[in-house]
Design a protein that fits this description.
82 residues, 2 strands, 10% strand
């Protein structure tokens, strides 16, 4: 999750103001903090990894070198978690 997304969610739920320096100051009471946590949970997504079998197939494939297997593993993770 990006910082700007978190800031928007904080502004939706927290009492906030602007410090003389220009920075936002967020104040959360229990109910506001719970609402903020709920918003974050709604926007989180589960990480999808590789199975042991997939890793074994990549790293014990005689046609791939170790660097190529690592590269393919990274690409698979990127695709699944985009």
């Amino acid at each position: 999750m990006k910082l700007d997304e978190l800031e928007k969610m904080a502004q939706q739920t927290a009492a906030y103001g602007v410090h003389p320096s220009g920075e936002f100051i967020y104040s959360f009471y229990t109910e506001q903090l719970q609402a903020f946590a709920k918003l974050i949970a709604e926007h989180e997504r589960k990480w999808v990894g590789l199975t042991n079998d997939e890793l074994t197939d990549l790293f014990y494939n005689k046609n791939l070198g170790q660097e190529s297997a690592v590269g393919q593993a990274i690409e698979l993770l990127k695709e699944r978690n985009a």
